[in-house]
Amino acid sequence: MSFHAFNRAIVRTPSRSVVNGLRAVDVGAPSYEGVLAEHRDYVRALESLGVSVETLAALEAFPDSVFVEDTALVFTGAAILLRPGAATRRGEAAEMAAALDRNFERVLRLEAGTAEGGDVLTTPRGVFIGASARTSAIGAAALASLLAEIGQRGFVVNTPPGVLHLKSDCSLLDDETILCTARLAAAGPFPGFRLILTPEGEEGAANALRIGDSVLLSKGYRRTAALLEQAGYNVKLLTTDGIARIDAGLSCMSLRWRA
Ligand code: CIR
Hints:
The structure is a single chain. By secondary structure, this protein is α/β, with parallel strands linked by helices. The chain has a single domain (8-257), classed as L-arginine/glycine Amidinotransferase, Chain A (5-stranded Propeller). Helix content is 23%, strand content 25%. It has helices at 32-48, 92-103, 137-149, 182-185, 222-230, 241-244; strands spanning 8-12, 52-56, 72-75, 78-81, 106-109, 120-123, 126-131, 154-158, 170-174, 177-180, 194-197, 209-211, 214-218, 234-238, 255-257. The strands form five sheets. The protein has a three-stranded mixed sheet, covered by helices on one side. A three-stranded mixed sheet has the order 3-4-5, with helices on both faces. Strands 6-7-8 form a three-stranded mixed sheet, covered by helices on one side. The protein starts with 7 loop residues before the first strand and ends with a strand. The mean pLDDT is 97. Bound molecules: citrulline. Citrulline binds at residues 21-23, 64, 67, 69-70, 86, 89, 117-118, 164-165, 167-168, 246-249, 251-252.
């Protein structure tokens, strides 16, 4: 069974307030309609790849709540409710609790520090936790302990300075291969993995999403798309112009697991 054979996902409809989503650099707000269309196409792409998608209702009080990945970690049979590091996002975790309780036999809760799911890369060789401005050292260590409770091995690595999340700069392409920016690869955080580096200027492509036999990739990163196709991956392009304005990519909009 491939590590990417997800068949279930949770997403959340974007709220109108998504136009006020957090961003490190303001290049202009995304339009609500644009984000909604990107989200709809994303859900369709997941469904076309055999994933059954549960859609939660929009939360106007939380502009970034469409990025459900940051609220939890999910595995077959178990989930961990996280504690987002961004103050305006902290309350999103409680809003995810009922959905986790419905879908997982075991739900653990992070009680110390902060951690966001965007900082966590789950691989067959362990779960890499990126310490970042959002995931504190205390949160990362507490998360590694919770992972041990559900039979997973956690490794704390560093997210490059100035990068929002570890997975802003990497994604798992298959059981042995990680798509990675050069700045993250320079720190050597993934020993034993084959790395495919994003070309210079296409760092934003690193947040791709492997589902089944396909790799979802943000449209516009032509050189990365060509590299992945040459390496034998089946690439599906999705528009992310709106969510990119609020520092998000393709992994952020779902929690995915194999039921
Ligand atoms: C934030 O700054 O929290 C959101 N605007 C973007 C979150 C992206 N999430 C992710 O990469 N997992």
